[in-house]
């Protein structure tokens, strides 16, 4: 037998005659250049999470990460960095049909929300040394993330049925997603990141009950105007009281 080692992870085995024929026509530079181009294309294209330390480029054994891990890393980072909200959900005994149905329901009822199962180790590496680093404690066991990509946030978004649901409203869509999750007894909300804030399950539910920005603004304006209104009414009442007091003295 004849062995040909072309990289750290790729090795071919041939008979001695086959190996001799292949070596006569083998050009290592062509193979290595194609591998380099492939890794360059799959390499992290969405470095959007701000890190306090640079991310690792090799494993602890000083070997490059596989293309699959690099692709998952880039996908997770893009979702965490660009989505206005991410919900983390633990699942138990979900069949393939149930998973497909769940994703379809999220897209239809939650303004194009999508779900992806997370590889705990890779997801932990994505959030390490970022503002989302505490999310790593939730990447235990079977967990998936509910998120909204750039297409779902677009004003021109249409759902799979061809219907334009209108303006993207995170609080409303998170509320709808929680309703979908709560209908399945095998799904458990672990928490999430909404508007750059890490929230527990109870905090996520409280978030959905908050009034919208316009309502809050009107409430704040009303609170600020209350003292001035009282002052104006007091000043208006003072002259009339003074006049009545002078009349009583006379």
UniProtKB/TrEMBL annotation:
Q: GO CC annotation: what is one?
A: ribosome
- Per UniProt, which keywords does this protein have? Ribonucleoprotein, Ribosomal protein
Q: Which family does it belong to?
A: Belongs to the universal ribosomal protein uL10 family.
Query: What protein name does the entry list?
Result: Ribosomal protein L10
Taxonomic placement: Eukaryota, Fungi, Fungi incertae sedis, Zoopagomycota, Kickxellomycotina
């Amino acid at each position: 037998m004849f062995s040909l080692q072309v990289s750290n992870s790729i090795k071919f085995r041939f008979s001695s005659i086959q190996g001799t024929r292949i070596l006569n026509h083998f050009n290592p530079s062509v193979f290595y250049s194609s591998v380099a181009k492939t890794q360059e294309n799959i390499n992290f294209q969405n470095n959007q999470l701000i890190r306090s330390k640079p991310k690792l480029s090799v494993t602890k054994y000083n070997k490059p990460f596989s293309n699959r891990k690099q692709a998952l890393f880039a996908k997770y980072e893009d979702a965490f960095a660009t989505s206005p909200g991410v919900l983390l959900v633990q699942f138990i005994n979900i069949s393939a049909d149930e998973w497909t149905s769940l994703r379809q329901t999220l897209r239809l009822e939650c303004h194009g929300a999508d779900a992806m199962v997370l590889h705990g180790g890779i997801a932990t590496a994505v959030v390490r040394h970022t503002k989302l680093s505490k999310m790593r404690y939730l990447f235990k066991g079977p967990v998936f993330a509910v998120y909204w990509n750039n297409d779902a946030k677009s004003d021109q978004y249409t759902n799979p049925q061809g219907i334009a649901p209108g303006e993207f409203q995170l609080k409303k869509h998170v509320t709808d997603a929680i309703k979908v999750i709560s209908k399945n007894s095998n799904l458990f909300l672990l928490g999430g990141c909404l508007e750059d804030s890490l929230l527990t399950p109870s905090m996520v539910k409280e978030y959905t009950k908050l009034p919208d920005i316009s309502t809050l603004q009107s409430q704040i304006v009303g609170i600020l105007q209350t003292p001035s209104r009282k002052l104006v009414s007091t000043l208006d009442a003072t002259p009339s009281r003074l006049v009545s007091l002078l009349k009583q003295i006379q």
